[in-house]
Amino acid sequence: MASSHFVLLAILSSALLVVHSPAGTLAQTPAAPAPSPPGPLNFTGILAKAGQYTTFIHLLTVETQVAKQIDNQLNTSTEGLTVFAPTDNAFNNLKAGTLNSLSTEKQVQLLLFHVLPKYYSLQSLVTVSNPVRTQANYGLNFTGLANTNQVNVSTGLVETLVNNALYQQSPLAVYQVDKVLLPPELFEAPAPAGSPPPTSTASSGGSNSTTTAKSPTSSQNTDSGANGLKFWYGSVVGGVAICMGMLIS
Ligand SMILES: *[C@@H]1O[C@H](CO)[C@@H](O)[C@H](O)[C@H]1NC(C)=O
Ligand SMILES: *[C@@H]1O[C@H](CO)[C@@H](O)[C@H](O)[C@H]1NC(C)=O
Ligand SMILES: *[C@@H]1O[C@H](CO)[C@@H](O)[C@H](O)[C@H]1NC(C)=O
Ligand SMILES: *[C@@H]1O[C@H](CO)[C@@H](O)[C@H](O)[C@H]1NC(C)=O
Ligand SMILES: *[C@@H]1O[C@H](CO)[C@@H](O)[C@H](O)[C@H]1NC(C)=O
């Protein structure tokens, strides 16, 4: 009796050990005792390790210096960062020439549009209030899907699921997206939901009279606000100068 109990116990505890150890090694972000990794976070290293982000990495490190900027911010920011990483497939699905048509400056804007200047867990994105500020001049909108831990991100031109965390530990969250997040401000709105003609190589580009179709954005509002302020300030300064002139003469 007693010995069979002992044997049972032994089997049970060794089974527990077997269950435990692979789980520990599998977990990428273990609930480890160490609160923070020893070295500085290597953002492009995380992408490289995940293995389907070569275009994104190339844009971040070769075409632009945005990766450096992100590394610096990770090192200094107290708020952390959230990055949406489009897969190579996402870039391949862009219309031919989309990236090449952008100046370096606009490529930087496009990349910074994928970065939020704050760490957001997936759960916190479900309830965040829209639009959410990005590192570019335009915001992103997030919609939580009921009864799931899933979130859609929307630019106004593109909507896609935020579905896989490559890394999620403050101060850095990196989520996979299967579409490149195109800001309407950089890309003229295409014919909505229509089938884009396959012969996209012609640079005719279509109507440029449709710029009024741009959606009103906060950035535009603040721009015009800033211009209004400058105008007001200029008027006041000008008025004072005229008064001074009258006084002197
Ligand atoms: C970060 O990772 C990349 C790719 O694995 C590597 O080339 C680079 O040297 C690493 N940088 C640092 C600071 O460790
Ligand atoms: C991070 O910041 C510290 C000082 O705050 C600096 O010594 C270190 O070189 C920085 N590391 C990187 C990778 O920028
Ligand atoms: C984002 O959300 C805000 C607030 O709900 C809304 O006013 C705006 O139109 C939305 N923008 C897009 C592109 O969906
Ligand atoms: C989320 O985005 C996908 C497109 O990727 C769309 O099919 C789906 O309807 C969206 N869901 C919600 C709740 O907006
Ligand atoms: C279309 O845009 C080009 C440059 O973007 C400009 O030179 C041309 O005048 C525009 N045409 C019309 C009809 O607005």
UniProtKB/TrEMBL annotation:
Coarse class of the protein's main subcellular location: membrane
Keyword Cell membrane: yes
UniProt xrefs under InterPro entries: FAS1_dom_sf, FAS1_domain, FLA_A
Segments of this protein annotated with the region Disordered: 188-223
Membrane-topology descriptor: Lipid-anchor; GPI-anchor
Pfam families: Fasciclin (PF02469)
Subcellular location: Cell membrane
Low complexity bias (residue ranges): 200-213
PANTHER family the record matches: FASCICLIN-LIKE ARABINOGALACTAN PROTEIN, FASCICLIN-LIKE ARABINOGALACTAN PROTEIN 13-RELATED
Job description of the protein: May be a cell surface adhesion protein.
Protein name (database record): FAS1 domain-containing protein
Organism of origin: Trapa incisa
